[in-house]
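User: I'm curious whether this sequence folds into something compact or stays loose and floppy. Could you predict its structure so I can see for myself?
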Amino acid sequence: MTDIADKPKVGLILAGGGARAAYQVGVLKAVAEMLPPDCPNPFPILSGTSAGAINATTLAIYATRFHEGVRRLVYVWQNFHVDQVFRADAPGVLANGLRWFAAMVAAGLGRRNPHALFDRAPLRRLLYRTMPFARIQESIDAGALHALSITASGYSSGQSVSFFQGAPSLAMWKRARRVGSAANISLDHLMASSAIPFVFAAVKINREYFGDGSMRQMAPISSALHLGADRVLVVGVRQEDSSATVRGETAEYPSIAQIAGHVLNSIFLDSLEADLERLQRINKTIRLIPAHNLRESGVTLRNVDVLVISPSEDLEKIAARHAHHLPRSIRFLLRGFGAFNRNGSNLISYLLFEKPYCRELINLGYHDAMHRREEILRFLETSSA
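Assistant: Here's the prediction. I'll summarize afterward.
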């Protein structure tokens, strides 16, 4: 296998978004089809958060066989059911719901207060069966992977921690409220990184409980840059021109579901968009300064090429069309939160781990990437098969 050490290092950023991460799989499916069947891993640096962490880790495990890794991702996401992610059976949902109600009535004074709305034991079992984590190091040793980074948020420290596994030359880093920590990536790292607050329980790693990595992740792209990425491909999970939404007058008070969806948007989406704007401003500034001035002043900033692939359609509207595929017990629970009212389907878009919805997102990601085929190939500095 050709070593990747001397090649420009392309970082792949797979952000969080719950079930929306199916869109990432569609983009990866398209990229795989653009490249020769026996091509090496085109993304030496993989950075994942929340559901994106699971996708990134799968690519890391199969870095010596990129097409095989993508094929496995497509198979799992195309056949997803909610009960593979969290308990969706009526007894489980009812029992947890009653514990939540009892905890609120007792002001949280019970001995066995619920840690989260849903029990993710099914996802832990699924990942345990399908993710041979020892192969991450094998990919690194084979020269097919430079580094994998998984980000989680520490509830005690308040830090955004990027756990990374990679080449021996990589060093840890520390910035304001964010650190990079060397680790052997494990099942606990994935469960912690994808633990949406209140919805899924936090996971203890070493001395601290961690939750979803999108929380307090002020610079989602930075971990890939710290690990040596020369350019980054970012796969978003929000419609490209969503910022152009026009505010209209509303008479109804927002439902719990609408507020929860708004909170999830701020956790999963806003920091990535802000980081992209910051990176573009830095690139523009660097291009205006002569290279010899940068060297003489000791400035270590460098221009980083970035390519962003985002949905061409509103994922919330797609989720609304498929909401009826959720199990009856989950529909009953979410209806009480107003998720089936107007403007409430945003919450559903994060929890709808059901085959019809995931398949439509995969198809959308595939077609969005294929429409930018030549641009992607130029970015990867390669040619099609």
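Summary: The radius of gyration is 21 Å. The longest strand covers residues 147-154.
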